[in-house]
């Protein structure tokens, strides 16, 4: 199921996303809180990158900065060597609490990004139906979000984000509010979608198991202020078995890096 | 459980029916007690015109439909002949409807603009604070000197009443828009402020805007009757006119007429509201 119409891009050395020395502070109760301090890393074209770290390490701020929803105090984010100055259809975003438009049906939500003039899609209705099928929501096209379970809502969130065919998908703890079994299924579905679209994904999570299950590359962050502690390539074939020795080793290694094994499970 | 399903649903339906019936009977009971108290009170009140009883009032109500009245048509000219009750109701609607619709439209418009634009909010907030507490009926003096106390003057008073209620409905609704929804829309290609207002803020604020409008339907009935007590033609004027002739039963009949008119509008609008807010 190829959703991307663009031909596969030739391999070159420039990364898809380059985060360069990004620092960002926000005001909270009259005080300035340093959310990100000199954060740098890059994501290659088609790479699945997970960002893990304890709560409050600025993961969400980082993702919002890549999305263009926040402007960094210093440093910059480059996408295809162009600095990010605001949100754009080239970067889709999936939110932790879904952020679906409650007054739109499943179909209406998925269609939202296709109705913008910037998006020239010739047969939107068919594309929406294809996406509904892709995320397994047949028969729920005309339901409103209030009638859907958490897992179904996030499926709509994903379909809505990938509808305009972005080259980058940003996901902010998207499966944090769904039960464990649904999460496992959504992991499989997400990997399938990613494989069929060739998108670059930045996926924020505090769950180490989740990161090792999904990622090609893991960025490990520290908190207060948010900094990159290290990055790590995950060299495991997919689908990944959580009980395999290789998998367990990666998890242990990241847990070590983060320092406090009791806190990481949240 | 599956064997007893049919029995089970029967019981459930019975319980529902019983609960409904009990509520209905209690309502009828309350009304009956009220009528009895009214009846007794009217019977022992002397002189009798001070409090007409339910029967006289009902009689007067029916008479309002049995006789006809000519009313002049504003703007178009000419006259319209209708049963008396409907004739005066129509007169009221001639200023109630334009006042309500225009006031609501302006209130919603300004509420959306101020709720959305922080700068406009900064400019106008102090002014709003000063103007808001003035009761609409206090503007009657200007209604009289500017428009004369006729349809236009009364419509002006209704306009002010509708304006504020709808203003706050829209203002609160837009201010309460979830920032995550505007973020989501921004990542989906919504760039201009006006598109964001139309695609996110307005539908998101719709429940509060509609509640504001529904509230103003009721409030404007109070205001319109107040304006008519000062002399604008319509049901309110007839209430005071009848009482000047000591025909209190006719006054009560007109009061009942207002109540019925409001009930119809309220129920109608609730049905409409439930339809458009099906997503809630």
| Percentage of residues in helical conformation of chain B | over 70%
Unreliable residue stretches of chain A: 4-10, 261-266
In percent terms, what proportion of residues of chain B is strand?
under 5%
Largest chain-chain contact? A-B, 32 and 20 residues
- What is the succession of H and E elements of chain B? HHEEHHHHHHHH
Structural class by secondary-structure content of chain B: mainly alpha
| Mean pLDDT across every amino acid position of chain A | 85
Termini separation of chain B: 33 Å
Give the % helix of chain A.
25-40%
Number of strands of chain A: 10
How much is the radius of gyration of chain B in Å?
A: 24 Å
Average pLDDT of chain B? 90
- Global outline of chain B: globular
Gyration radius of chain A, rounded: 18 Å
Q: Can you summarize the main beta sheet of chain B?
A: 2 strands, antiparallel
Largest sheet of chain A: 6 strands, mixed
Strand content of chain A: 15-25%
Description:
The complex is a heterodimer of chains A (266) and B (280). With 266 residues, chain A is of the alpha/beta class. In chain A, 29% of the residues lie in helices and 25% in strands. Chain A contains 7 helices and 10 strands. In chain A, the strands form 2 sheets. Chain A has a 6-stranded mixed sheet, with helices on both faces. Chain A has a 4-stranded antiparallel sheet with strand order 2-1-4-5, covered by helices on one side. In chain A, strand 7 (168-172), helix 5 and strand 8 form a beta-alpha-beta unit. In chain A, helix 6 packs across helix 7. The longest helix of chain A has 18 residues, at 180-197. Helices cover 78% and strands 4% of the residues of chain B. In chain B, helix 3 (84-116) crosses helix 4. Chain B is globular and about 70 Å long. Classes of the chains: A alpha/beta (266), B mainly alpha (280). Chain A binds chain B through residues 64, 67-69, 86-89, 91-93, 95, 97, 99-105, 112-113, 116, 118-119, 144-146, 160-161, 164, 170, and chain B through 178, 180-181, 183-191, 199-200, 203-204, 206, 278-280.
């Amino acid at each position: 199921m190829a959703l991307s119409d663009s031909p596969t891009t030739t391999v070159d050395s420039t990364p898809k996303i380059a985060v360069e020395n990004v620092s960002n502070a926000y005001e909270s109760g009259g005080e300035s809180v340093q959310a990100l301090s000199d954060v740098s890393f890059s994501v290659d074209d088609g790479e699945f990158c997970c960002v893990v770290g304890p709560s409050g390490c600025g993961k969400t701020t980082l993702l919002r900065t890549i999305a263009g929803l926040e402007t960094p105090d210093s440093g910059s984010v480059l996408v295809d060597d162009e600095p990010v100055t605001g949100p754009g259809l080239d970067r889709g975003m999936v939110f932790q609490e879904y952020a679906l438009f409650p007054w739109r049906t499943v179909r209406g939500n998925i269609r939202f990004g296709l109705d913008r003039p910037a998006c020239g899609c010739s047969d939107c209705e068919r594309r929406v139906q294809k996406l509904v099928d892709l995320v397994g929501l047949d028969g729920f096209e005309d339901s409103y979000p209030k009638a859907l379970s958490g897992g179904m809502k996030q499926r709509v969130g994903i379909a809505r984000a990938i509808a305009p065919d972005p080259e980058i998908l940003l996901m902010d703890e998207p499966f944090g509010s769904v039960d464990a079994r649904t999460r496992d299924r959504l992991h499989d579905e997400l990997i399938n979608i990613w494989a069929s679209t060739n998108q670059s994904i930045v996926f924020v999570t505090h769950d180490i198991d989740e990161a090792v299950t999904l990622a090609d590359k893991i960025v490990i962050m520290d908190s207060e202020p948010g900094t990159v502690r290290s990055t790590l390539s995950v060299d495991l074939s997919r689908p990944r078995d959580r009980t395999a020795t290789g998998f367990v080793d990666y998890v242990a290694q990241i847990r070590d890096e983060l320092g406090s094994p009791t806190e990481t499970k949240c | 459980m599956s064997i007893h399903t049919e029995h089970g649903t029967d019981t459930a339906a019975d319980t529902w029916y019983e609960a409904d019936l009990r509520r209905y009977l209690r309502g009828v009971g309350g009304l009956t007690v009220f009528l009895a108290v009214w009846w007794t009170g009217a019977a022992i009140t002397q002189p009798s015109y001070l409090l007409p009883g339910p029967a006289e009032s009902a009689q007067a109500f029916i008479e309002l439909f049995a006789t006809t009245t000519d009313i002049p048509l504003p703007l178009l000219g000419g006259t319209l002949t209708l049963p008396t009750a409907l004739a005066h109701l129509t007169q009221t609607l001639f200023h109630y409807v334009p006042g309500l619709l225009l006031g609501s439209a302006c209130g919603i418009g300004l509420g959306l603009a101020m709720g959305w634009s922080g700068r406009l909010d900064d400019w106008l907030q102090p002014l709003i604070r000063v103007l808001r507490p003035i009761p609409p009926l206090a503007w009657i003096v200007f209604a009289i000197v500017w428009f004369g106390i006729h349809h236009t003057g009364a419509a002006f008073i209704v306009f002010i009443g509708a304006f504020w209620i709808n203003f706050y409905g829209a203002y609160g609704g837009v201010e309460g828009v979830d920032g995550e929804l505007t973020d989501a829309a921004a990542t989906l290609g919504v760039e201009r402020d006006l598109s964001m207002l139309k695609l996110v803020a307005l539908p998101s604020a719709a429940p509060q805007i509609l509640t504001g409008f529904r509230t103003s339907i009721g409030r404007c009935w109070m205001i319109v009757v107040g304006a008519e007590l000062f002399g604008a033609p319509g049901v309110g004027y007839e209430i005071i006119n009848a009482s000047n002739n000591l025909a209190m039963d006719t006054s009560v009949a007109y009061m009942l007429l207002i109540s019925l008119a409001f009930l119809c509008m309220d129920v109608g609008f609730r049905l409409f509201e439930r339809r458009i807010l099906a997503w809630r």
